[in-house]
Amino acid sequence: MHLLAAKPGEISDGTGAIDLGQTPGEIVILTAADSELACLAAAYAGLAGPKPSLRLANLLQLQHHLSVDAYVEDIVAEAKLVIVRLLGGRRYWPYGLEEVAATCRANGIPLVVLPGDDQPDPELSDFTTLSTESAHRLWRYFNEGGIENAQQALLHAASLVGQEVEWLEPRPLLKAGLYWPGETVTALADLKKHWRVGQAVSAIVFYRALMQAGTLKPVDALIAALNTRGVNALPIFVNSLKDAVAADLIGALFAEARPDLVLNATGFAVSQPGGDFATPFDAADCPVLQVVLSSGGAEDWRNNTRGLSPRDLAMQAALPELDGRILTRAISFKAASRFDAATQCNIVEPEPVADRVAFVADLAERWIRLRRSRSGSA
Q1: What does the pLDDT average to over 132-158?
Q2: What is the side-by-side order of every strand in the sheet holding 231-238?
Q3: Same domain for 80 and 193?
Q4: What is the pLDDT of residue 376?
Q5: Which residue, 349, 348, 317, is CA-closest to 330?
Q6: For 178-195, what is each residue's pLDDT tens digit?
Q7: Which of 56, 159, 166, 182 has the fewest CB atoms within 10 Å around its CB?
Q8: Last residue of a domain, one of 93, 125, 160
């Protein structure tokens, strides 16, 4: 079997054997989060030179063993520092992780393997050869997120490969907060300036990672679609629904805004199978609709008899049922917005599909009308 050359601007689902076509770089960062890649590319572009060469890649494109072998031999083996961010532990990329670690050990290349979330993972730490202090600092940069922390992470990484640069410690960012397109929003009063008195309210809950990378087109499209249907949008970003800060913020906002509906665009579930049913949305006592931001491309979705990928079906359809969410449909798909020549990486962003956004907004309007008719507030 031979490898197909990946083309700039194309997205691979990783199932085929491909060659990403990169040339070696001093620092290599692998992650499954497209938003993180977009953030790192923007941060690298904003750094003044001279700076070490950087290669970014989505490890989901490196699922085939031949793809991993080629990338490890051509890129990882020539690096001076390798950073891997792995959500879900070693079992989500077992072959790739083993091959990267073996090559780094054989070539004396510092390796740091970090969890893709804010929970420690001793299994991943066992693969790390960088000092515990530096590895923990890099983890904090990624966990806090945002362009500024990404730049400081790259500067710290530059210092680890021998460049004399100054860097700052990670700066904490809000784990959860409010959002409105084109504005800095700190309180519900800031949002209410855009609301119309007497209209129903629908919360839109989405991942903080979209805020960090600025990939907010699907959220903006939902806000606009609700507005045209006479529904006030309450957009809230969260690091995780399991995070206490997010839960407290949602509870406080819901107590004040009293939403008629929740459109949730985060994956997984808070409740456990067979356990107690309790979520941050319970205080609103309203329907919760699950909105899917697909991790795949539109073409893959059209050609797949199951529609969504197994990963999306698990994270955004099956597991959310544990929280009693009502599945709607995918409103956006990943699209390569540009090829970043500096990092030799496709920058992939979610692109909303207008008719699918409209479907969800129409559905939201009907659920709100039904709820209000039953409560006598219509």
Answers
A1: 95
A2: 176-178, 231-238, 200-207, 261-264, 288-297, 326-340, 345-352
A3: no
A4: 66
A5: 317
A6: 999 999 999 999 999 999
A7: 182
A8: 160
Which amino acid would we find at residue 142? F
DSSP string for 350-377: EEE-HHHHHHHHHHHHHHHHHHHHHHT-
171, part of any domain: no
Residues 233 and 291 sit within 8 Å (Cβ to Cβ): no
Q: Report strand pairing: 345-352 vs 326-340.
A: antiparallel
Q: Which residues pair with 264 in a beta bridge?
A: 205, 290
Q: To which H or E segment does residue 347 belong?
A: strand 345-352
Contacts of 316 (CB under 8 A, 6+ apart): 267, 290, 292, 293, 308
Q: Which residues pair with 335 in a beta bridge?
A: 349
Of 6-20, 119-133, 138-152, 285-299, the one with minimum mean pLDDT is 6-20
Residue 57 in domain: yes
- Show the domain range for 58: 4-160
Q: Label residue 15 by pLDDT band (50, 70, 90).
A: low
Decide: 34 and 348 in contact? Cβ < 8 Å: yes
Q: Does residue 165 have a pLDDT over 80?
A: yes
pLDDT at position 16, please?
Answer: 73
Domain count, the chain: 2
Which tokens is 95 given?
């072959």
> Which of residues 306 and 226 earns the better pLDDT score?
226
Question: Does the residue 170 lie in any domain?
Answer: no
SS3 5: strand
209 vs 176: CA distance, rounded Å:
11
> H or E element: which one contains 85?
strand 81-86
Q: Would you say residue 165 lies in a domain?
A: no
